[in-house]
């Protein structure tokens, strides 16, 4: 029993290390470019991808409301080598 529990814990730890955590963060800046095909945009040189779960606030309702030059705050998670926007709001 003790060996089985240790093996299980090691397996869970190894799986976590291989997939890595999803790190949450935020960034502010102006939108530099927009790619409607991939539903992504660039702020401070970083490409952010939107998903159906991305929340748009402060007058932004959908991806099509984004504009180059618009100052935004982007909450995001970094997962599988990409930045995914969880919330996008206008920044004053």
Could you explain the architecture of this structure?
- The chain is globular.
- It has a single domain, classed as OB fold (Dihydrolipoamide Acetyltransferase, E2P) (Beta Barrel).
- It has one helix and six strands.
- A hairpin with a 2-residue loop joins strand 5 and strand 6.
- Helix content is 20%, strand content 46%.
- By secondary structure, the chain is of the alpha/beta class.
- The protein has a five-stranded mixed barrel.
- The N terminus is likely disordered.
Tally the structural domains: 1
Q: Going across the major beta sheet, what is the strand order?
A: 1-2-3-6-5
**CATH homology group:** Copper binding periplasmic protein CusF
CATH architecture: Beta Barrel
Q: What structural category characterises the helix and strand content?
A: alpha/beta
Shape descriptor: globular
- Tell how many strands the DSSP assignment holds: 6
Q: Uncertain runs with pLDDT below 50, 5 residues or more?
A: 3-20
What is the CATH class designation?
Mainly Beta
Radius of gyration: 18 Å
Return the string of H and E elements: HEEEEEE
State which percent range the strand residues make up: over 45%
Number of helices: 1
Largest sheet: 5 strands, mixed, barrel
Can you give the mean pLDDT? 83
Distance between the termini: 59 Å
CATH topology: OB fold (Dihydrolipoamide Acetyltransferase, E2P)
> What level of helicity do the residues show?
10-25%
Give descriptors for this structure.
92 residues; disordered N terminus; globular; OB fold (Dihydrolipoamide Acetyltransferase, E2P); 1 helix; five-stranded mixed β-barrel; alpha/beta
